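Retro notes (design track)

What went well: tokenization of the new backbones is finally stable.
What didn't: we kept losing track of which sequence belonged to which structure.
Fix going forward: every design gets posted as structure first, then sequence, in one message. First example under the new rule, 123 residues:
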């Protein structure tokens, strides 16, 4: 449900958990809003949580905050998720399509296929 939160907020929350329990935290992210349209709009505070165009950028930013930083010239390149630690949570992507698999391959993350959502896409 990354669509409901800023990548920095997610990164900092999971950095706290990783600092408390090093090597024991996984972060699973997905594009789906996780609720019906009314609840999704309420969670987004009137915004558009269903925007698929923003998801790859949000994943990139999240991984940057957790890892070695954001790309040069990024408007927030000077930020890093805190607390900083020696390890970072393993970041998984949940998806139900070949587009999700392409995104995972691009970022080099582990992938969990949502067979329960789209059993036809498994092949």
């Amino acid at each position: 449900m990354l669509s409901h939160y800023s990548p920095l907020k997610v990164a900092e929350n999971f950095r706290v958990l990783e600092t408390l329990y090093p090597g024991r935290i996984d972060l699973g992210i997905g594009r789906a809003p996780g609720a019906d349209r009314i609840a999704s709009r309420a969670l987004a505070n009137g915004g558009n949580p269903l925007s698929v165009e923003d998801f790859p950028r949000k994943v990139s930013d999240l991984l940057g905050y957790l890892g070695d930083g954001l790309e040069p010239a990024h408007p927030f390149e000077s930020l890093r998720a805190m607390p900083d630690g020696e390890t970072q949570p393993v970041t998984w992507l949940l998806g139900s399509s070949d587009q999700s698999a392409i995104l995972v391959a691009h970022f080099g993350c582990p992938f969990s296929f949502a067979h329960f959502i789209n059993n036809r896409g498994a092949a």
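Added context from the reviewer: The mean pLDDT is 86.
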